[in-house]
Amino acid sequence: MEKPLTQHIKNDHTWLSLKEYEAVGGYQHLRKALKLNPQDITKIIKDSGLKGRGGAGFSTGTKWELVSLGDQSPKPKYFIANADEMEPGSFKDRLLLEGNPHQLIEGIIIGAYAIQAQFSFVFLRGAYHPAAKAITRAIEESYQAGYLGEHIAGSDFKLEMSLHISQGRYMCGEETALLNALEGKRANPRAKPPYPALSGLFGKPTIVNNVETLSNVPQIISNGADWFMNLSKTGEGGTKLYGASGRVKNPGLWELPLGTSLREILEEHAGGMQEGYQLKGLLPGGGSTDFLTPEHLDVPMDYASIMKVGSRLGTGTIIVLDDKTCPVGMVGNLEKFFAQESCGWCTPCREGLPWTAKILDSLEAGNGKMEDLDILKFQTHYMAPGHTFCALAPGAMEPLQSALQYFREDFERHIHEHKCPWK
Amino acid sequence: MTVEKILTKQEIKEIEEIHKHFPQKSAACIEALRVIQKHHRWVSDEAVKELAEILDMSGEAIDSVATYYSLIFRRPVGRHVIMVCNSVSCWIMGYEKILAHLKNKLSIDYGGTSIEDRFTLLSIPCLGTCDHAPAMIIDEDLHRDLTDEKLDNILQTYT
């Protein structure tokens, strides 16, 4: 089984130096890319089926296509790697950042060439200290080797790259909020349209892609769109970093073909549930995805299949709910996170999320009333997609609406028994 | 009488180095706050005022940014900052028990600083190490698979 994302990553907590990365073919992909037209690169990426691995699942090639090229087009253009991994239960980009920073940097340079950007940034989460060290050093090495700066690898292309270390806030992962943070402002989201490809950082054309997405780019250029398409088990192309956390025997992270079933991930790779624990439910791709239940175990973990059963692939890192953990408490923990991380810019999110978290707290404390369940249901509509400025609150409603659907009985027991049955 | 400045020449130089990379000075605001915090552990009102002059912004504008970001401290902190992950996977794996032990041991609650300014205790969302929950960071070090006993040993290494 091919593992283009992780095959070279060492298990000793050190990252691949420039020399080590070059020894396994690193930066040859960039040399190849620089011989192609920018438009041809975008076409290869589009044909490969590569979709955003940050959670939204939008076609990467289609995103790049939105940037207008040519002498008359606005300049400078910006290319940004979104390394602000902060989705609860997600721990995939950290591996790539700490293990193989040059693969990411090569992906950024190729992407920047495809949209003819002059400046690039790695927007890194502040709490990822080892990653900051790896990226800082890797950027220095890249400049020294002539892969950044003027005349990259002997071509006419030039690109600057710098690392921005963010100072916290989940909101920064939203791409327009991220742009505001890079401009030194509060990370409130911007109205869309215009999309960043048209008017992004400092009002200039900008592309923002996730770390895992960009780390796929170098090998797609060398091996072609068909190769990438054939890596997956289903029709969406590529491998995926899948993870599992919670009370499984062997929590961890694995690179597997996109479309691997939930059952294979949880039973073969995560080793099944710990002794004495049963699987009650799971969030397939981080805190802002809908619950699935054991009846969904044979569903392939790809964008279309997971959507068909009412959830989202998200970040692909599964959070397991066991039978000895209270689902109301779990959703309460998530909603407290979302309430805290709301930027407060739009009313439904600013008011609705703390309200939701408060109700869940009172249910968990045994003070809930039946009408609280109606209010929670109301919140899931009040903060539904289209009612808020960005996707934070709609994402926050996904675990809640599905918990109300699958675990309604457990919510009601809290009310009837005037306590949490798990305590 | 001249009022003593908070920001040193060295810090001002570091901040100017950042803003010259951007089309407008204010874009350096967040990174400048980081520079100040690196040297002073926190960002005081006086530091905000001085930064405002350097970046041609109002003090209020700087403060609106400083108070938005949870890793910028607008109150003094201890020599070491403990940030305990309070997100969902750590919650499932029982971080609340670890936190209770920590609070008890240091005799502080969230936001508090222990005696002789040794530790400040804060929470942080998901640290991205969910396969090794529960987890926390102290300063720049990640500690994972926490137990009460492990915690006691870890704390000893920070003086």
CATH architecture of the largest domain in chain A: 3-Layer(aba) Sandwich
% residues in beta strands of chain A: 5-15%
| Residue runs with pLDDT of under 50 for 5 or more positions of chain B | none
Structural class of chain A: alpha/beta
Name the pair of protein chains with the most residues at their interface, and give those residue counts.
Answer: A-B, 55 and 41 residues
* Text of the CATH class of the largest domain in chain A: Alpha Beta
Number of structurally distinct domains of chain B: 2
CATH topology call of the largest domain in chain A: Rossmann fold
The outline of chain A comes out as globular
Provide the CATH top-level class of the largest domain in chain B.
Alpha Beta
What Rg of chain B do the Cα atoms give? 18 Å
Low-confidence runs of chain A (pLDDT<50, min 5 residues)? none
Extended strand count of chain A: 8
Average pLDDT of chain B works out at 95
Specify the structural class of chain B. alpha+beta
The CATH H-level superfamily of the largest domain in chain A is: NADH-ubiquinone oxidoreductase 51kDa subunit
Oligomer description: heterodimer
Q: What's the number of domains of chain A?
A: 3
Number of DSSP strands of chain B? 4
Strand arrangement, major sheet of chain A: 3-2-1-4
Mean pLDDT of chain A: 97
What do you see in this structure?
- The complex is a heterodimer of chains A (423) and B (159).
- Chain A has 3 domains: 18-231, NADH-ubiquinone oxidoreductase 51kDa subunit (Rossmann fold, 3-Layer(aba) Sandwich), CATH 3.40.50; 239-322, Ubiquitin-like (UB roll) (Roll); 327-416, de novo design (two linked rop proteins) (Up-down Bundle).
- Chain A is globular and about 75 Å long.
- In chain A, strands 3-2-1-4 form a 4-stranded parallel sheet, sandwiched between helices.
- In chain A, a hairpin with a 6-residue loop joins strand 5 (239-245) and strand 6.
- Chain A is built from 17 helices and 8 strands.
- Chain A has 423 residues and is an alpha/beta fold.
- Chain B has 159 residues and is an alpha+beta fold.
- Chain B has 2 domains: 9-66, Arc Repressor Mutant, subunit A (Orthogonal Bundle), CATH 1.10.10; 80-156, Glutaredoxin (3-Layer(aba) Sandwich).
- Chain B has 7 helices and 4 strands; from the N terminus they run H-H-H-H-E-H-H-E-E-E-H.
- In chain B, a hairpin with a 2-residue loop joins strand 3 and strand 4.
- The longest helix of chain B has 12 residues, at 29-40.
- The interface between A and B is large, with 55 and 41 residues.
